[in-house]
Design brief:
The structure holds two protein chains of two kinds. Chain A has helices at 20-30, 32-47, 55-75, 80-104, 107-110, 112-117, 124-150, 157-160, 162-186, 190-204, 219-222, 225-237, 244-275. Chain A is an all-alpha fold. Chain A has one domain. Chain B is 36% helix and 28% strand. In chain B, the strands form two sheets. In chain B, strands 5-6-7-3-8-9 form a six-stranded mixed β-sheet, with helices on both faces. In chain B, strands 2-1-4 form a three-stranded antiparallel β-sheet, with helices on one face. The chains are: A mainly alpha, B alpha/beta.
Chain lengths: 276, 239
């Protein structure tokens, strides 16, 4: 029997030592090339009939940070050179986070034709969706580069920390999407709960502002886990390493979140196909 | 060497009504101590397969018969590994391909070629395998230059040709089919039957669920009857 490439069609005999949740994730990792192809196809399909293609996103982000940056820096009496870069980083990170979180709840429903007919790893649709949003994120990189050049932000060793920090955010986003996909498959109205909560969360997260700008105790913002996921990337983008407690919280969030998600995935993964 | 074994397999699934699918009513039921929950929980457990055991070996061609809702599709999905049994064990050896609902993974905005790749990859083909089979798929669909156009521009019959061609382009050891014959025009039906026949004769184990007794007798040697989630093997004359 063939294993590696034919894993989709042949649910390989589960390596007995691994719990099913990890075996499922392992199978998905071996199919990463298929998942990447599907994610790229999703994007191609979405922008097939548009002139700029996915670069509409780049344009949208550029327009958003330009418009909001100019108006809000006047309104808030902030220095434009400090406000616009911070706002752009916040917006780009927010698009990534909110895109994943909002879409996660309906991931399994949208892929139900595949899940009901083929034996694919159940962690595949969430990974595919995260990849799609990471590709989206890459399309916003030109805006970030332009802002860094225009406002002469300091470039240095700290800037390189963006990559590991972003990876840590992606690790967190993966458990968040997997968890929300499962819950969304079971509870159909979670999609609307999340949809209603996201605009509120946006204002409770440091998207338009930095935690230090707040007139009241900044501790309140740090209770929101999303604040850490935004700030950990924003610090290196603006040229300084992220503070230790942000890195620590993000790391602990990843560990705790993954333990919870794996436990739930282990217990309920067999039921997902029936929920659809 | 292909093998498919069921040992005391029981498949149960929950059926939720609108209430049970709602997080809100779930939370209300927790906060009221679960009393409303018990009255209107809206969850029913359906036992689709009960203590099913059989062994299929190389060369077995099996027809599944049973009324609507007898559990034929559930049995096929359990064979494929889409549904996991609540109890019991399923042993699979060999590469499995399924022809259930056609077109899993198809995106109507993408072109025919891109969809062939997508569906092929999902069926477990490698990129190079897809490339070598592309000519065969192109020839079978007879869609020619249409394959470069988005699938949303296809007629229903054209889309069926494409989906059928891809679904039948794998070369599995175990083939599971949930009645798909009977789509498209007469000429296509004939070609589809021929292609299906070729595929069936190339696999080691073939399982076919259908109400079409004539087709079943043509392709199958063994027959399993499903009734109330239980499987009994019957002879060809009992069909």
């Amino acid at each position: 029997m063939t294993v590696s490439a034919h894993d989709i069609a042949t649910p390989a005999p589960v390596p007995s030592a691994l719990p099913p949740a990890l075996a499922d994730l392992g199978r998905a990792m071996r199919l990463l090339h298929v998942i990447a192809f599907m994610a790229a196809g999703d994007l191609r399909a979405r922008y097939r009939r548009s002139v700029l293609g996915p670069f509409w996103m780049t344009l949208g982000t550029a327009a958003g940070s330009l418009g909001l940056g100019l108006v809000w820096s006047e309104l808030l009496h902030m220095d434009r050179a400090a406000f616009v870069p911070s706002l752009t980083c916040g917006l780009v990170m927010w698009y990534l986070l909110s895109g994943c979180i909002t879409e996660a709840t309906s991931t399994y429903w949208r892929q139900s034709a595949i899940l009901r007919n083929l034996s694919v790893p159940l962690s595949m649709p969430p990974i595919q969706m995260l990849l799609k949003h990471l590709i989206n994120f890459l399309h916003n990189v030109p805006v970030l580069v332009a802002v860094i050049l225009i406002f002469h932000l300091p470039l240095g060793a700290a800037t390189l920390l963006v990559i590991p920090c972003l990876a840590l955010v992606a690790v967190n986003l993966l458990w968040i999407t997997l968890l929300l996909s499962m819950l969304g498959a079971r509870f159909r109205d979670l999609e609307y709960v999340i949809g209603a909560a996201m605009p509120l969360l946006m204002f409770l997260s440091p998207v338009f502002y930095r935690p230090s700008y707040l007139p009241f105790n900044e501790q309140f913002v740090w209770f929101n886990p999303l604040s850490h996921l935004i700030e950990i990337v924003r610090y290196p983008l603006l040229g300084s390493p992220p503070p230790g407690f942000v890195v620590l919280t993000t790391g602990l969030l990843a560990v705790g979140g993954w333990l919870l998600t794996l436990w739930l995935f282990n217990a309920k993964r067999n039921r997902i196909a029936y929920w659809l | 060497m292909a093998r498919l074994e069921f040992h005391g397999v029981t498949v149960q699934y929950p059926v939720y009504d609108v209430r049970a699918k709602s997080l809100r009513s779930r939370l209300v039921s927790i906060s009221t101590g679960g009393r409303i929950e018990r009255e209107a929980s809206g969850v029913q457990i359906v036992t689709a397969l009960r203590d099913v055991s059989f062994t299929l070996l190389d060369g077995d061609t099996v027809g599944l018969v049973g009324h609507n809702g007898a559990g034929k599709s559930t049995l096929l999905r359990t064979m494929a590994g889409v549904y996991q049994p609540a109890w019991g064990e399923v042993l699979r050896e060999g590469r499995i391909a399924t022809v259930f609902e056609l077109g899993a993974g198809m995106d109507s905005e993408l072109s025919g070629y891109e969809n062939i790749q997508r569906m092929g990859l999902l069926l477990g083909l490698r990129q190079d395998e897809i490339r070598t089979r592309m000519d065969d798929i192109e020839a079978f669909t007879q869609l020619g230059p249409f394959l470069g156009l988005p699938v949303r521009t296809y007629s229903a019959g054209m889309a069926t040709r494409l989906m059928f061609a891809v679904a039948t382009s794998t070369r599995p050891d175990i083939l599971l089919v949930d009645e798909v014959f009977g789509a498209g025009d007469a000429e296509f039906q004939e070609k589809a039957a021929q292609r299906m026949h070729d595929l069936i004769s190339s696999v080691s184990i073939f399982v076919f669920a259908s109400h079409d007794i004539a087709a079943m007798k043509r392709y199958c040697r063994r027959f399993l009857r499903l009734e109330h989630g239980q499987v009994t093997e019957i002879g060809a004359d009992e069909l």
